[in-house]
Design goal:
The protein is α+β, with helices and mostly antiparallel strands and 335 residues long. 19% of the residues lie in helices and 29% in strands.
Length: 335
C-alpha cells in the first residue's frame, strides 16, 4: 500500500513494464513527490541501497495526463493500471485491488494539483539536458525522447554529486534478473502462517539487508532469498518476549520498523508498508499466543515448566520437599 514517509512523500512498491510492450514487469520502489513535481522509481527503497545509488527512472507529473485501471487493456496482468504520459503508456501492477485503487487516486490527485510551468512547454530545450536531481552541480545528463516524453538519465561518466553517483545502465539491466524479490512465492507448507520479504539490521555491522522471512507455528526464520532451502537463522517463538512497533524508529530514521525482542537479542525489521508492519506484528503475536496461551510470556512459561516438574525440589525456611509446609527449620534436610 502507498504510505507517507518522513519527508511527506508517497512511497511504495509496484511492478512496472519499463520496456514498452515487453510484457515483463519488474519490482521497483516508487516515490511520488509533489514538491519536486516528480514520480521516480528505484531498484529498492533508497534507505536499503548503497549511498549514492541513482534512480532507475523518473517522470515529471506535468507530463502525466491521466492514470486509470488497465484491467481490460492488460487482462493477463493482475491489478494493472496505466499512466498516460505524452505518446507513451506506462503499465504498472499493484499488489492487490485496494493497492491499485489507492495508487490511481493519489496519482490523479497529484497531477491535478500540479500546474505546468511555462518552461515545461519546451521539453526539448537545452536546460532540460543539464538538470540534476539536486540542481546544485553541473553534471552530464542525457535526455531521451520516449513517446514524446523527455526521460532524463545520467550518463555513464557522470561525476559524483551531493545526491549520489551514477550506475552503469548495462550493469543495472544485468542485475535486474538477480533480484530475489520480484514476486514472492506462496508458502509451500500448510504450517507456514506468513511469509514475505522484509529488511533487517545485521547484528555486527549494523547494515540493512533484504531477507525472506517465514513464520510457522513454532519459529520465525529468515533466508537470503525465497529460493534458498536453508535459513540463515531460526528464532524459536518460545524465546520471543514481545513483538512491537519499534520505539527507536525516529532515531534510526526508518519507516515501518518493528522489533522482535528475545532474551539474547533484539531483531530490528523493516516492512515495506505500515500495513505489512502491523500484519507481521499481528501474525507473530498471534502465533506466540497460540503456542503458549494468552498472557504467557517466555519467562513465565519457563517458570511454569519448572514448577510443574515434580523432580525439581524447592526448599525454603518454611517448606519442605516439593513445597510441603513444615513446622520448623529443623525438618529441612541438609545437603
Amino acid at each position: 500500500m502507498p504510505y507517507v514517509d518522513r519527508q511527506n512523500r508517497i512511497c511504495g512498491f509496484l511492478d512496472i513494464e519499463e520496456n514498452e510492450n515487453s510484457g515483463k514487469f519488474l519490482r521497483r520502489y516508487f516515490i511520488l513527490d509533489t514538491r519536486e513535481d516528480s514520480f521516480v522509481w528505484y531498484m529498492d527503497n533508497p534507505q536499503n541501497l548503497p549511498s549514492g545509488s541513482s534512480r532507475v527512472g523518473a517522470i515529471k507529473l506535468t507530463y502525466i495526463s491521466k492514470v486509470s485501471d488497465a484491467t481490460k487493456l492488460r487482462p493477463k496482468a493482475e491489478f494493472c493500471f496505466v499512466m498516460n504520459a505524452g505518446m507513451r503508456k506506462y503499465f504498472l501492477q499493484a499488489n492487490d485491488q485496494q493497492d491499485l485503487v489507492e495508487w490511481v487516486n493519489v496519482l490523479n490527485k497529484a497531477i491535478k494539483i500540479t500546474v505546468p510551468k511555462q518552461s515545461d512547454s519546451q521539453p526539448h530545450s537545452d536546460n532540460l539536458s543539464r538538470q540534476s536531481e539536486c540542481g546544485k552541480k553541473q553534471v552530464s545528463y542525457r535526455t531521451d525522447i520516449v513517446g514524446g516524453v523527455p526521460i532524463i538519465t545520467p550518463t555513464q561518466k557522470e561525476e559524483v554529486s551531493e545526491c549520489g553517483e551514477s550506475i552503469d545502465r548495462n550493469n543495472l539491466k544485468r542485475s535486474q534478473s538477480h533480484l530475489p524479490y520480484f514476486a514472492p512465492k506462496p508458502p509451500p507448507d500448510s504450517a507456514v502462517i506468513k511469509a514475505g520479504y522484509c529488511v533487517k539490521q545485521g547484528a555486527v555491522m549494523k547494515n540493512w539487508k533484504r531477507r525472506y522471512f517465514q513464520l510457522d507455528e513454532n519459529t520465525i526464520g529468515y533466508f537470503k532469498s525465497e529460493l534458498e532451502k536453508e535459513p540463515l537463522r531460526v528464532i524459536p517463538l518460545k524465546e520471543v518476549h514481545k513483538v512491537q512497533e519499534c520505539k527507536q524508529s525516529d532515531i534510526m530514521m526508518r519507516d515501518n520498523l518493528f522489533e522482535i525482542v528475545t532474551s539474547s537479542r533484539t531483531f530490528y525489521v523493516q516492512a515495506d508498508s505500515p500495513e505489512e508492519m502491523h500484519s507481521w506484528i499481528k501474525a507473530v503475536s498471534g502465533a506466540i499466543v497460540a503456542q503458549r496461551g494468552p498472557g504467557r510470556s517466555a519467562p513465565s512459561m519457563r517458570q511454569a515448566r519448572r514448577l510443574s516438574n515434580p523432580c525439581i525440589p524447592r526448599y525454603t525456611a518454611r517448606t519442605g520437599e516439593c513445597g510441603t509446609h513444615v513446622g520448623s527449620r529443623a525438618n529441612v534436610p541438609s545437603y
